[in-house]
Amino acid sequence: MRPARTRPAHRAAAALVCLLASLAAVTGRPLPASADGAGDGRLSLDVVRDFTTFVPSQQPAQDATSSLRAGIRAGAGGARDVRLTVETRGLQGAVKLSARGKCAPAEGRKAAFTCAYDKLDAGLTRVRGLRIENAPGARDGARGTIRYRVTAAGGAEASAVTTVRVGGARLRIRGEDPDHDSVGGVRPGGRAAFSPVIANIGRLPAYGVGLSVSSQHLSLRLVEKYRNCRYDASTGRSAYCWFGGRLRPHTAYRLSAPLRFTASRTMTSAVIVTSPWRSGQYSPWENDPAGKDRYTRRGTGERLTLEALPGSVGTDGYQRLLRTQIRTRQTVDLEAYSTVENGRLVVGVRNNGPGTLSSDAGRFRFTPPPGTSVLGPSEEDLEELLWECEPTKGGARSYDCVASGGTGLPAGAGFAQTFELCRTGTVRGSGRVRAAGRPEFVRDRRSGNDTARVPPPESLRDCPSGTGESATGGSGTPATAVALAAGGAGCLAVIGVLAVRRRARR
Predict the structure, then answer these.
(1) What CATH topology corresponds to 334-495?
(2) What is the CATH number of domain 31-166?
(3) Alpha-carbon distance 427 to 411, whole Å?
(4) pLDDT band at 221 (very low <50, low <70, confident <90, very high)
(5) Before 276, cis peptide (omega within 30)?
(6) Which residue(s) pair with 420 in the sheet?
(7) pTM summary value
């Protein structure tokens, strides 16, 4: 749980083994430690309570292994001569481990590995050298145990146990009301409550489930409350919660209490992204390329729990990732305007406040003066991703533009688009620009300034031959033939529109 860099709630199942480990800190329960380690807190283990793998036949053979991520946490001053012993005798018939790097098979012992470190700094050190894969012939439901013991100079030590399971539950999520994916009527500066429903739609139980929660806007922050949730102290916009216990197949669960958010006084709307994951699958801290856990603040209130709903659940209405719109009663005043700069027409919309226009919520429609036509965006605009408009559907001689800049428009900010006009015949009168907002997101109580006249520039050149009254691309090329391609993996080829990414001019 996406997510501002939006990341899928479940990593694409391209790997045979879906093994991204949920650290023991997720559970909200301390790992078992020996008496020596528990007293001074100098050494502890972060490992997964339950680990889930897939049967080999379900994924390509080349993706048959993945990392078993354990961690050693040292106290202030770090630790010296650290030795981690991993015993795998309890894994027969389920999964098997291999080692590399700082980890190797234990000398003189079967089904055991050791990882040695001369010195560890204070904080968490990930153990990267352990690899896990299914044992030959492993089937769904097979299980085993891994036992860990870590020691260091001075007598510090700790131990832990992980249960390994083959196969896994299929977790999905929906809103409390399956017919609505929004929460409205929130008072500016007030609190919003949201309570998703988590379901196990698979045929195997889930042994614990995590819930990732993220606000996609700075103006909507999580209320830190529940003791089994950890919050991102740096932004206040994301958290994850861990629910222990067994989630039955084909069963839905609701939260015992809602998740709560505080809206800023200027917020008009924002998006919350929530997604569930099972132990050993996806973990929110995997988003951090540095491998650091940003979720350092634990709630101090009551424990959030899951309550089973009656009946068997299907798949309708459930999804891997849930996006929920939070709307307040705050208003904005959108004002349309136009001007001429360097012989080119600039039209746009200004937000006079008091609210902040959320990302992509604002729109404006530009209709050129009669007798003129629009030349397409310049190569510079295309290269700089400044072009935000596309011809209005239905063949009308207008352009619809997004007025946001990607991050929204606060009070006093505006967004404008530059158009170059050419003459197709006798120029008669003015054009028009009309500001509008997506009605589900924008509350504009003042409509008198939503429309502005657009006089033609004093100097206009004739349109290239064949342009006529149609919307055109640069040098007279029809706009509907403009194709914009962005190279590189994951980029989008945009054909038939003059729309690319948003950028605000303020």
Answers:
(1) Immunoglobulin-like (2.60.40)
(2) 2.60.40.10
(3) 36
(4) very high
(5) no
(6) 375
(7) 0.68
